[in-house]
Amino acid sequence: MSEPLASHSRHRPCRVRDVPRWDLDTEIAIVGFGAAGASAAIEAAGAGARVTLFEAASGHGGTSALSGGEIYLGGSGGTPIQRSAGFSDETEDFYQYLLMAGGPDADAAKCRLYAEQSLAHYEWLVAQGVVYKNSFVPQRIVEPFTDDCLLWSGSEEAWPFCESARPCPRGHTPQWMGLGGGKFLMDALARRVQALGVELRFDTRAVALIADDANRVRGLVVREGGVDRYVRARRGVILCAGGFIMNKAMLQQHAPHMLRANTPIGTVDDGSGILLGQSVGGHAIHMNEGFVTLPWYPPESLIKGIMINEQGQRFINEDGYHGRTAQMILQQRGTRFWLLADGGIFKEPEFSEFAKLRIGAAAESWEELEAELELPAGSLTATVALYNRHAAEGRDPLFRKQPKWLKPLTQPPFVALDCRIDFCTYFTFTLGGLDTSVRGEVLTASREPVAGLYAAGRTSSGLPRWGAGYSSGLSLADATFFGRQAGLAAARREPAGDGT
Ligand SMILES: Cc1cc2nc3c(=O)[nH]c(=O)nc-3n(C[C@H](O)[C@H](O)[C@H](O)COP(=O)(O)OP(=O)(O)OC[C@H]3O[C@@H](n4cnc5c(N)ncnc54)[C@H](O)[C@@H]3O)c2cc1C
Q: Binning pLDDT at 50, 70 and 90, where does residue 6 land?
């Protein structure tokens, strides 16, 4: 007869004295087999530690396997692909860009370490079996439909980013035909995890941490086949369980504005990693921040258009990353937004089906279009007239869009691409999580490490922590690189003995 389930909770630890028995004994217990967990496991096992990986799903991958697999890489003069495309990416430029992308509270230590070691991280990824084609896509796209590699994947060329850091494309997509290179990335990492002899426990969910009275983490309670098992983790526990975009109550509490975006993207992402960390004193930061996007370009000619709100006003330089535009949309009043284009630049967006992007109105004059959109008389027309006057002079004194994207919008027909927030598909995932050191140690509110506890990926608040600065590839860069740091740090920690 199976014993009744104890009432373990992600919100409070199971105390060591309450552990009825140790069912499993390992050195490092990792929660979650996405990019962060796999990278942590590879480094920890490679350093000689005994590692057990617990995954709630029946296979590896997590959200990482659904992704484009694009990783933000550069610095140290550039990866071979950047150099071959004619770019030299200096570490200082990369660092400055990461700082800006991280926003007003960027983690300077993480940005510095990643900028300095990103080239070595590229080499590490290649050594794990991730293949990159030596090719560059010069046009502004979201993700390649081909197997090409290097992309402009952020706001590198746009103001204000271009003023602090010399622009360089840094998005590296694995050689995989079509969208969804994340599966290829995860399969490569998973093969390596298996080759290193990591013990894998699928269909097994972490339900509580085990800690002593001083909140030193000693292990984990996992639920497997409906039975609670008590896992001793002698060197530590690494939480890599993703973010909390699927947990509506947490969104309501921490990031209610993100509920305006209608399409959460992820798999489990129920916040369990963050809650487990908080249960022993881990401090969660930037919980209000998230990635949001509406992929309104490509084609890149649409970047020459102007984005307006329902007051008929511009609010952003349209040449930044599409996620930056969407982030600014989220912060506007009202739900109606349009991208205005003229006959010279308008082409159907490549993701029109996917993102439900449709023409909201078309007319032979801007006045007619304004009336058709039922905007206050003179609002849209004044915005377009001012923009056109400046564009003809090759400048945008209001929002500093770069000259290469400036063109007066004077050629009929005039088109309003409907970007309504309550209709189009706005994709979103969370960026807030546990505060961690550069070694992946989970930190308390006073930034002391919680002994024996590490976190990485979207369970932590890492390089990407500001929606308005997010660049494609930053989440997986952070998950893989700082997952590795957590794995190494845990493997170096002195193991706890039987009496502790
Ligand atoms: C369509 C799409 C495209 C994207 N494209 C990119 C891109 O190109 N580049 C980029 O940088 N980012 C991209 N992202 C974002 C990126 O994929 C994620 O932010 C990143 O993969 C998170 O990695 P992770 O290791 O933290 O989490 P995950 O990969 O989600 O791994 C977490 C794992 O933990 C498991 N788990 C959760 N709770 C528990 C529990 N209690 N017990 C046991 N296991 C648990 C989950 O099942 C999951 O397998 C994209 C996302 C999507 C959805």
A: low
Q: Which residues contact residue 130 at a Cβ distance below 8 angstroms, ignoring those fewer than 6 apart?
A: 174, 184, 185, 188, 189
Q: How far is the CA of 39 from the centre of ligand 1 (A)?
A: 13
Sign of CA dihedral 421, 423, 424, 427: positive
Phi/psi at 200 (5° precision): -110, 130
Asked whether residue 377 falls in the same domain as residue 307, the answer is yes
Domain of residue 196, residue span: 14-66+182-291+427-492
Among 58, 66, 67, residue to substitute to test ligand 1 (most atoms within 8 Å of Cβ) = 67
Overall domain count for the chain: 3
Q: Are residues 126 and 221 in the same domain?
A: no
User: pLDDT per residue over 447-493, tens digit each?
Assistant: 999 999 999 999 999 999 999 999 999 999 999 999 999 999 999 99
Q: Give the closest residue (by CA) to ligand 1 atom 16.
A: 64
Angle at 84 between CA 79 and CA 88, to 5 degrees: 60
Residue 499, domain member (yes or no): no
Q: 8 in a domain, yes or no?
A: no
Same domain flag for 193 and 61: yes
- What lines the ligand 1 site, CB under 6 Å? 31-37, 54-57, 62-64, 66-70, 182, 205-206, 240-242, 265-268, 272, 429, 457-458, 472-476, 479
Residue at a domain's end among 386, 418, 450 = 418
The reported pTM is 0.97
Q: Which tens digits make up the pLDDT trace of 383-400?
A: 999 999 999 999 999 999
